[in-house]
Design goal:
Number of helices of chain B: 9
Shape of chain B: rod-shaped
Oligomer: heterodimer
Structural class of chain B: mainly alpha
Radius of gyration of chain B: 40 Å
Shape of chain A: elongated
Number of helices of chain A: 10
Order of helices and strands of chain A: HHHHHHHHHH
Strand content of chain B: under 5%
Largest sheet of chain A: none
Strand content of chain A: under 5%
Largest sheet of chain B: none
Radius of gyration of chain A: 19 Å
Distance between the termini of chain A: 53 Å
Number of strands of chain A: 0
Largest interface: A-B, 60 and 45 residues
Chain lengths: 192, 189
């Protein structure tokens, strides 16, 4: 597997610890984005990302290179965020059951989704960000890893420790929930 | 050629965007999209949602972030294989010394004859004559204590083994716990 972090990791493991800064520089923004979206608080997110980098450094000897370094690192970060959410009692939230009508056919919803086409790009982005933060944590995690971290299904499956089928389902449901919520927001705005 | 009038499922449309359809599925979905305005519009909407999600803004960590992480790295557990070898070296040498002593004692105790013991005593006596009388008295007492150990029948091989294992255990117990933890755990996450 092609892993651009691998040569640096090998160097760090050989004792050149200063090169770990390159790893931090490379991943800090995406890691912070993920942690902040999961925790909803920048200060806590920064602390979580720092902790994740430290844990990762201490455990480097155990990294066998079977997956990409980034996958391994994001798994550490995700677990750290999950622990934080557990402490707040938020990690156990149940995902909303998917609306079966939504899954049946596209044709029935074409009329309402046409409203989405009218939405301004900027407005759409703002609403999506707000609504993403309100998704159940497991859907939100899958969605962020896919879109922000640009991970493949296999990598997301490894980070979240979930079967690939479950990852696909979470992603699909996350998108559907987002779409429905964005539509609701548009309707609310129109009726106001 | 028949037209596929079955509407695409949302999953199929999303998979079309993600590029995860097989060639057969792709040609079937594309054939339907070409003749179905409803599914084509849905594809457009899904694509727009997808595009917006992909352009999620990245948060930027402060410039000091990397320095903060680097300053928190544990200096001594730098995971260097070389540093581990250096830390381990004195303990390996000590262990080797104990094991070596054990082996020499084991074979020696079985090989010494009475004449060898007498010669050793004589050699020690001569050496002690050169030292002051007080020291000689103390040393003579020590020789008396050591004498049974040098005897062929005082300690057999098994007894020497037990003594040596005990010595190794004592050595391990007095080792610095922090150093041992670093050696064997390497700083777990």
């Amino acid at each position: 597997m092609d892993d651009i972090d691998r040569p640096i990791i090998e160097d760090v493991r050989s004792g050149n610890t200063r090169r770990f800064a390159e790893i931090v520089d490379r991943h800090k923004d995406r890691a912070l984005t993920l942690a902040c979206r999961l925790l909803g608080n920048r200060e806590e997110a920064e602390e979580a990302v720092q902790d994740a980098f430290l844990r990762c450094f201490r455990a480097l000897e155990r990294f066998r290179g079977e997956s990409r370094f980034s996958t391994w690192f994001y798994r550490i970060l995700y677990n750290r965020c999950l622990t934080q959410l557990h402490r707040r009692g938020e990690a156990e939230e149940e995902a909303e059951p998917v609306d079966q009508e939504v899954l049946q056919s596209v044709a029935a919803e074409v009329e309402e989704t046409s409203a989405l086409r009218l939405l301004e790009e900027r407005e759409m982005a703002d609403i999506l960000q707000e609504e993403t933060d309100r998704l159940p944590s497991q859907y939100r995690s899958a969605l962020l890893l896919f879109y922000v971290q640009e991970m493949r299904y296999e990598e997301i499956s490894e980070v979240l420790a979930l079967p690939m089928g479950t990852v696909k389902t979470h992603l699909f449901r996350a998108r559907e929930m987002l779409k429905k919520r964005v539509l609701t927001r548009i309707e609310e705005a129109q009726s106001a | 050629m028949t037209q596929d009038l079955t509407h695409c499922s949302p999953e199929e449309i999303q998979s079309r965007i993600d590029g995860r359809l097989s060639p057969e599925e792709l040609s079937r979905v594309d054939a339907h999209l070409a003749i179905c305005p409803a599914c084509a519009r849905a594809l457009e909407v899904f694509s727009r949602l997808d595009k917006s999600l992909r352009s999620f803004p990245l948060l930027r960590a402060d410039a000091s972030f990397t320095r903060a992480v680097m300053s928190r790295l544990p200096v001594r557990s730098a995971a260097s294989r070389y540093s581990r070898v250096l830390i381990a070296l004195p303990y390996v040498l000590a262990l080797g010394l104990v094991v070596g002593t054990m082996l020499i004692a084991f074979f020696w105790s079985g090989a010494l004859s009475g004449a060898d013991v007498a010669a050793t005593e004589s050699f020690v006596d001569q050496g002690l004559d050169l030292i002051g009388g007080g020291v000689k008295t103390v040393a003579a007492g020590a020789v008396k204590w050591v004498e049974p150990l040098l005897s062929q029948h005082a300690l057999n091989g098994s007894a020497w083994t037990v003594v040596s294992v005990c010595a190794v255990l004592v050595l391990l117990l007095v080792l610095d716990k922090v150093v041992l933890r670093r050696l064997f755990r390497g700083g777990a996450a």
